[in-house]
């Protein structure tokens, strides 16, 4: 009989039903490594998420899921008898990542000629891999199975499955022709407004406009979302960045490389495809007046940009280095791995005419300039494309690429933590290591401030003061990415 459980699910509010994650038989117990009312992290290097330089030999006190204190030296503080003290000498702690482009789906293995390109909902693997990779808060940036996303969020909040704090984005707001069969095609501004109203009522807290939306549909969507105090982001093509800013959009995904407004053949309200504009963009000077003008305009309109360098890198021949990909191989369904390496090889074969080698550099320069002038840059992994960029792993790779772009490790971590929290309006709760905030913390071996790749060496991920074992989370979904 399932009626009883279903009814209980309906009757109890999220918080009232939350389970103690380490209690006997609690579903999260197999993944929990540290659980105590009071936990003291000793002798740890702290990168606090504000962009400030790393501090050596700090002590972090966690009480009832929150950061109660952070200070240098040992002091003479008294703690309750059952306090758990953990010596983290040689390790570093930074805030849980606030991922801003974190879909719960992934491309299904290539089905062959004549079959539709489909994405599968990774309701089992994605939340675990995000958490294992240090992502403790995630905006989903466009949904293909909105009711599954809602159920997954509820299950995480109720302590039934492991995963990050999810900030759900509604179904894509896509015009005609929709880029895939899993997207709804808007029929006009009324439909855009109706879609936003409906999914806001269902609990979505942001929306993403997509490549073929018309300016009129985008305007209606933004106005209705703002009426619900909900923000709108976009991966646009039919609408240029400055036009979107003037319509009131709050965020643009991916950055300059998807901006079509500089394309010589651009027609009002129509997407010219991705490749022709990108071929022209690769020849533009980021320091020139056109792009600098766009940067100033976005900043003046308070439009944030989400950096997704990891997915862009996957289109560059022979990148990322194969050792990066070997980290994710065991998480993938063998067919999904096969699809990835086949496409990767064909990109490598056409290396001579690869625009993406230039575009990745262009994008990095744009992001640096955008931040230098005061723009709010955030980060997300976007586990799409042709595969190979996985939840959690991709977010770590993004940090490395932000450093390659010229940011300091501390700045890169700030972009991937506090900035996202600020956009979400959650910065009083999450995003930095500060007294009173949730104890959402990533402990890694080594020192990312000196060697950013150390962000991959995750030892423990704390969410609300509960320490999870990344290896156990990863092993629990071995071979499942691309399937479920
Ligand atoms: Zn996306």
Count of discrete alpha- or pi-helical segments spanning 4 or more residues: 17
Unreliable runs? 1-17
Large-scale geometry: globular
Question: Helix fraction?
Answer: 25-40%
User: What is the averaged pLDDT score?
Assistant: 94
CATH architecture of the largest domain: Alpha-Beta Barrel
Bound molecules: zinc ion
Instruction: Give the CATH topology of the largest domain.
Output: TIM Barrel
The CATH class of the largest domain, by name, is Alpha Beta
* Rg estimate, integer Å: 22 Å
Strand content is: 15-25%
Domain module count = 2
Q: Please state the structural category.
A: alpha/beta
What is the rounded distance between the termini?
26 Å
Largest sheet: 9 strands, mixed
| Overall number of strands | 19
Give a brief description:
This protein is of the alpha/beta class and 484 residues long.
Task: Please describe what this structure looks like.
The radius of gyration is 22 Å and the shape is globular. Strand 10, helix 4 and strand 11 (165-167) form a beta-alpha-beta unit. The model is unreliable at 1-17 (pLDDT under 50). Helix 14 packs across helix 15. The protein folds into two domains: 29-94 and 439-475, Urease, subunit C, domain 1 (Roll); 97-424, TIM Barrel. It has helices at 3-11, 14-17, 125-132, 146-157, 189-201, 215-227, 241-247, 275-281, 289-300, 309-313, 322-326, 334-349, 355-372, 393-404, 409-415, 418-424, 470-475; strands at 32-34, 38-46, 55-63, 66-72, 84-87, 91-95, 97-99, 105-107, 119-121, 135-139, 165-167, 206-209, 231-234, 251-253, 304-307, 377-379, 441-445, 458-463, 466-468. The strands form four sheets. Strands 1, 2, 3, 4, 5, 6, 17, 18 and 19 form a nine-stranded mixed beta sheet that branches. Strands 12-13-14-15-16 form a five-stranded parallel beta sheet, with helices on both faces. The longest helix has 18 residues, at 355-372. The protein has 484 residues and is α/β, with parallel strands linked by helices. Bound molecules: zinc ion (ZN). Residues 101, 103, 141-142, 235, 382, 384 line the site of zinc ion (ZN). Zinc ion is lined by residues 101, 103, 141-142, 235, 382, 384.
């Amino acid at each position: 009989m399932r009626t009883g459980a279903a009814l209980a699910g309906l009757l109890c509010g999220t918080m009232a039903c939350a389970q103690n994650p380490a209690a006997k038989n609690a579903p999260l117990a197999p993944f929990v490594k540290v659980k105590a009312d009071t936990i003291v992290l000793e002798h740890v290097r702290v990168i606090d998420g504000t962009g400030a330089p790393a501090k050596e030999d700090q002590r972090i006190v966690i009480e009832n899921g929150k950061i109660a204190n952070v200070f240098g030296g040992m002091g003479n503080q008294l703690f309750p008898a059952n306090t758990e003290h953990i010596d983290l000498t040689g390790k570093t702690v930074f805030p849980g990542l606030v991922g801003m482009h974190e879909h719960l789906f992934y491309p299904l293995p290539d089905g062959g000629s004549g079959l539709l390109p489909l994405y599968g909902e990774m309701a089992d693997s994605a939340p675990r891999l995000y958490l294992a990779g240090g992502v403790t808060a995630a905006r989903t940036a466009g949904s293909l199975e909105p009711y599954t996303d809602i159920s997954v969020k509820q299950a995480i909040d109720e302590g039934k499955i492991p995963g990050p704090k999810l900030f759900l984005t509604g179904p894509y707001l896509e015009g005609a022709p929709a880029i895939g069969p899993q997207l709804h095609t808007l029929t006009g501004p009324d439909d855009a407004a109706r879609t936003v109203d409906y999914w806001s009522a269902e609990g979505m807290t942001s929306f993403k406009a997509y490549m073929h939306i018309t300016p009129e549909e985008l305007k209606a969507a933004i106005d209705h979302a703002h009426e619900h105090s909900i923000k709108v982001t976009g991966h646009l093509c039919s609408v240029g960045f400055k036009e979107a800013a003037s319509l009131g959009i709050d965020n643009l995904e991916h950055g300059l490389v998807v901006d079509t407004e500089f394309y010589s053949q651009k027609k009002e309200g129509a997407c010219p495809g991705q490749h022709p504009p990108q071929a022209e963009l690769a020849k533009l000077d980021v320091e020139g007046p056109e792009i600098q003008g766009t940067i100033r305009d976005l900043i003046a309109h308070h439009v944030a940009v989400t950096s997704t360098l990891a997915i862009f890198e996957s289109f560059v021949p022979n990148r990322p280095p194969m050792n990066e990909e070997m980290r994710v191989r065991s998480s993938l369904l063998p067919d999904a791995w096969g699809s990835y390496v086949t496409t990767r090889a064909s990109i490598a074969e056409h290396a001579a005419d690869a625009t993406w080698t230039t575009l990745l550099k262009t994008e990095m320069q744009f992001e640096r300039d955008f931040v230098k002038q005061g723009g709010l840059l955030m980060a997300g992994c976007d586990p799409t494309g042709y595969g190979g960029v996985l939840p959690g792993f991709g977010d770590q790779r993004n940090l490395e690429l932000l450093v390659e772009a010229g940011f300091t490790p501390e700045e890169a971590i700030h972009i991937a933590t506090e900035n996202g929290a600020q956009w979400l309006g959650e910065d009083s709760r999450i995003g930095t290591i500060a007294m009173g905030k949730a104890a959402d913390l990533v402990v890694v071996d080594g020192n990312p401030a000196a060697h950013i790749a150390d962000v991959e060496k995750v030892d423990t991920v704390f969410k609300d003061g509960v320490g999870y074992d990344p290896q156990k989370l990863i092993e629990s979904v071995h071979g499942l990415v691309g399937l479920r």
